[in-house]
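Figure 3 (text version): C-alpha cells given as input.
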C-alpha cells in the first residue's frame, strides 16, 4: 500500500551572522567665522547614522554618514564651543551566502580610536576609525510533514509555533518647531532628544503613527561660562505603506533622533528641525502541527530527521532603569558644566536563573578646572535590565533595542564625580529555537507475522518512558496501548513505574 505524505510550508529561521567592519575617519574641520577660534580641544565623538541597508546573497550594503562632533574651549574666555561635520560613507560587508524571504539587519558599533589636533585656531584635524557591527537574521520558507496515512503508519504530532516577519521598515522623518530663548545665546553646545510613539494604528497595508520628539538644547549666554537648558516638544505624524500588515499583527515602532538643525526665525524665535529614524517591525504568529515521530505496524520504516529552526517573539520591551556611578576627579575644584551619555551595543546575557538586557553606559562630563581650562571626564557604568522572556528552553536570543538617556544628573562634591542616568530601553527580543521532526519516511519489507498464540504481553515500564516508544517496539498502535491500559489519551510520558498490557496482533 502506498504511503501518503502531506506537507506544508512554514516561516523558519534562516541564516544568521554577525560581521564587523571598520570605517576610517580622516577629515579636517574648519571653524566657521561665527564661532570663536580654538584655544583647546576638549572632546571628540563619532556617531554613525545608517540611512540605507540592502541585503544581497553574500553581501550587506550600507549607506549613511558619520557625525564627527568636536567640543573645544574658545579663545579669550569664549568658554565651551561645539562644531560638527557629516562624513558620508558607503560600505559593503561580506556575509555567508544564505536564502531569505525576509531579513533584518541591526547595525551598531563603537569608536575604535579617535585623534584630534589643532592645526591652527580655525582648523582641526581628525583621524580615527569607527567599528561597525552588523547582525543579520533571515527567515526562509521550509516544508515540513504535517500528516501521514496508510501503510499502517502511526505518528506522534507536535506543534511548531513562532512568528513570521511581516514588515521591516526604516524611514527618515522630520519634525519642526520653535525654540525661544530668554536671551540671545552666544553658543549652542548640543541639541539632543528622545522620542516617544504615542499612538500606532494598524490598518490593512498601512500603519498610522503619531508621536513626539522631546528636544533638549544646551546653550550658553554671552559672558556666562555655565550652560543652560531649553526644551521643546515637536509632534509628528507618519503614515507608512506596509504590504501584508493587518490589525492582528504584533508591532514594534521606535523613533530614534539622529540630528537637529537650528535656523534663526523672526523675532526672538529660532526654528528647530529634528530628524529621526523610524524603525518599524511587525510579526504575525503561527502554529503548525507536524509529524515529530512515526513508525509502521505493518512494515519496516526508515526515518530521516529534520531540524526545524523557528523564530519567536520573546518579549516587547519598553522599560526604564537607573544606573549610577562615582569616581575621583584629578582636580578636586573642578566645576561641572555639562554632561552627555552614550551607549554600547546591547546584549541579552544570562543573569542567575534568568536573563537581562546589558550594555555599557558612558557619561562624559565637561568641567572647568582650577586653572580655568576645560576638561572632559568619562565614567562608564553597567546597565542590567531584567527580562521576562517567553521562549522554549535552550533558545538563543537576539535583541533589537534602542537606548536613550531620559534623565542625566552629574555633579562634583569633594573631588568626586557623581553620575546618575535614567536609561530608557525600547525594542524587542527575538528568540531562535529548534525542534526535530520527521523530514522523510520510507517503508521497507513487511514485518514478520505476529505469533497467533500470543494475544497479550506484559511490559514493566519505568518512569520517564514514552508510550509511543513502547508501542513502536512492539509494532502496535499507541491507541490500542491506551485503551488496553485504560490510560488518559493525553498520556505520553509515564510519570511512575507501572505494568503495561501490550495487545497482540
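Below: residues designed for each position.
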Amino acid at each position: 500500500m502506498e504511503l501518503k505524505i502531506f506537507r506544508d510550508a512554514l516561516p523558519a529561521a534562516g541564516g544568521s551572522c554577525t560581521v564587523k567592519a571598520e570605517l576610517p575617519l580622516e577629515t579636517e574641520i574648519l571653524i566657521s567665522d561665527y564661532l570663536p577660534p580654538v584655544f583647546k580641544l576638549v572632546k571628540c565623538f563619532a556617531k554613525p547614522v545608517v540611512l540605507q541597508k540592502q541585503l544581497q546573497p553574500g553581501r550587506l550594503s550600507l549607506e549613511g554618514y558619520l557625525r564627527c562632533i568636536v567640543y573645544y574651549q574658545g579663545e579669550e574666555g569664549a568658554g565651551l564651543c561645539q562644531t560638527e561635520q557629516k562624513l558620508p560613507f558607503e560600505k559593503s560587508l561580506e556575509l555567508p551566502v544564505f536564502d531569505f524571504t525576509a531579513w533584518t539587519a541591526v547595525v551598531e558599533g563603537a569608536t575604535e580610536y579617535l585623534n584630534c589636533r589643532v592645526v591652527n585656531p580655525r582648523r582641526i584635524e581628525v583621524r580615527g576609525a569607527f567599528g561597525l557591527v552588523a547582525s543579520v537574521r533571515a527567515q526562509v520558507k521550509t516544508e515540513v510533514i504535517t500528516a501521514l496515512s496508510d501503510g499502517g503508519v502511526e505518528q506522534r504530532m507536535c506543534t511548531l509555533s513562532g512568528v513570521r516577519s511581516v514588515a521591516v521598515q526604516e524611514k527618515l522623518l522630520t519634525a519642526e518647531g520653535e525654540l525661544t530663548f530668554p536671551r540671545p545665546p552666544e553658543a549652542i553646545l548640543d541639541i539632543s532628544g528622545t522620542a516617544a510613539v504615542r499612538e500606532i494604528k494598524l490598518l490593512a497595508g498601512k500603519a498610522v503613527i503619531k508621536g513626539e520628539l522631546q528636544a533638549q538644547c544646551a546653550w550658553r549666554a554671552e559672558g556666562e561660562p555655565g550652560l543652560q537648558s531649553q526644551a521643546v516638544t515637536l509632534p509628528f505624524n507618519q503614515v507608512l505603506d506596509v504590504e501584508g500588515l493587518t490589525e492582528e499583527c504584533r508591532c514594534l515602532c521606535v523613533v530614534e533622533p539622529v540630528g537637529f538643525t537650528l535656523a534663526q526665525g523672526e523675532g526672538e524665535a529660532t526654528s528647530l528641525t529634528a530628524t529621526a529614524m523610524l524603525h518599524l517591525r511587525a510579526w504575525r504568529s503561527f502554529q503548525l502541527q507536524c509529524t515529530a515521530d512515526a513508525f509502521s505496524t505493518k512494515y519496516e520504516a526508515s526515518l530521516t530527521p529534520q531540524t526545524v529552526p523557528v523564530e519567536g517573539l520573546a518579549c516587547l520591551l519598553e522599560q526604564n532603569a537607573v544606573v549610577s556611578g562615582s569616581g575621583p576627579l584629578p582636580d578636586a575644584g573642578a566645576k561641572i558644566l555639562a554632561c552627555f551619555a552614550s551607549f554600547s551595543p546591547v546584549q541579552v546575557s544570562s543573569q542567575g536563573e534568568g536573563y537581562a538586557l546589558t550594555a555599557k553606559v558612558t557619561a562624559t562630563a565637561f568641567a572647568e578646572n582650577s586653572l580655568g581650562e576645560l576638561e572632559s571626564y568619562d565614567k562608564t557604568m553597567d546597565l542590567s535590565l531584567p527580562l521576562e522572556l517567553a521562549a522554549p528552553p535552550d533558545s538563543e536570543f537576539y535583541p533589537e533595542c534602542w537606548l536613550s538617556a531620559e534623565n542625566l544628573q552629574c555633579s562634583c562634591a569633594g573631588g568626586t564625580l557623581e553620575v546618575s542616568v535614567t536609561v530608557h530601553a525600547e525594542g524587542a527580543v527575538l528568540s531562535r529555537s529548534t525542534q526535530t521532526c520527521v523530514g522523510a519516511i520510507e517503508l521497507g519489507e513487511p514485518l514478520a507475522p505476529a505469533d497467533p498464540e500470543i494475544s497479550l504481553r506484559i511490559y514493566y515500564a519505568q518512569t520517564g518512558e514514552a508510550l509511543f516508544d513502547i508501542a513502536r517496539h512492539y509494532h502496535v498502535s499507541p491507541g490500542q496501548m491506551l485503551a488496553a491500559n485504560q490510560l488518559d489519551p493525553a498520556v505520553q510520558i509515564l510519570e511512575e513505574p507501572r505494568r503495561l498490557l501490550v495487545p497482540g496482533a
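The mean pLDDT is 90.
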